[in-house]
User: What shape does this take?
Amino acid sequence: MSILLSVTGWDPTPWRRRFEALLPEAFLATPETLADRAAIRFAICWRPARGSLADLPNLKAIFSLGAGVDHLFEATDLPDVPIVRVVDPDLTGRMSEWVVLNALLHLRDFRRYERQQRECVWDKDDDPPTAGEVRVGVMGLGELGRDAARKLKTLGFDVAGWSVSPKTESGVECFHGPAGLDAMLARTDILVALVPLTLATRGILNARLFAKLARGGALGGPIIVNGGRGGLQVEADILAALDEGVLRAASLDVFEPEPLPRDSRLWSHPNVIVSPHNAAVSSPGAVAHFVAEQIKAFERGEPLRHLVDRRRGY
Ligand code: NDP
Ligand code: OXD
Assistant: This one.
């Protein structure tokens, strides 16, 4: 069995080592070493090199090394085979850590106390809000959004969520569809974006949406937390909304383009927390295991799991 490992933007070495150990019978090729295109049965990808997926006549499936698959749909020559994405407790747990961390940083006004420490200032809010007074809206109640919503709920936040299809989640007010979004925004102090980047969601975090967020909440203004994709957000609108007080703060893990350019004002804005697209890294240890198990199951005649719906784009 031959497998193509096509990875750009991440170091492919730990991935190659993991797959060699987990699938010792497989021949692992890279776009640079690939000689026999007809031998390739599976492609394992993160931002695959341009043209690397074309002309693989015996390809059975493509595995994304991330939960998101927008990086695959960028290719014009994407073969028409099943696409599997990552659904793994390791990745899910990491994302929830990042979401909870940022919700707490804003709840506890961490930026202010960090600044004060640098200036040796001893000053505090005498009646700060608790989690129960803060309404969080999670855009996307999928694998990641649902887990984050549950963990935020456990901490006492007043949590709602939004998805395409109707959902029920204990203790979480669930909204769906375009009409449901406005209703959720109207009760949201912290908006967490965990929707995939698709034609329907590109640019959704824009000035029109920010204007619909709740005013008068316990945090002194709405806050956005984007762990989804940079393409969801209109950066100029975020900066303008922060400057005009429409938004109080933003935590951003994802950008377009990445890395975030040095001259972006987001780096230095006092009310923006930037992280380098590491909210939930795909750990080679966990994710290679997930992919290898699926390949073995497929070779035994079992169906692939966590397939992407090409029509929806996620
Ligand atoms: P899922 O596919 O499991 O969940 C996506 C959720 O978004 C679903 O609830 C879906 O609704 C909802 N959704 C999709 N489109 C829309 C829309 N147009 N309107 C309303 N809701 C919508 O994805 P995951 O939770 O696994 O991952 C989400 C995203 O997180 C990934 O696509 C990726 O971009 C990002 N990510 C970022 C990482 C990072 O490190 N920053 C790491 C991993 C992922 P429904 O359930 O009804 O279909
Ligand atoms: C992913 C990511 O989609 O790391 O998994 O962004």
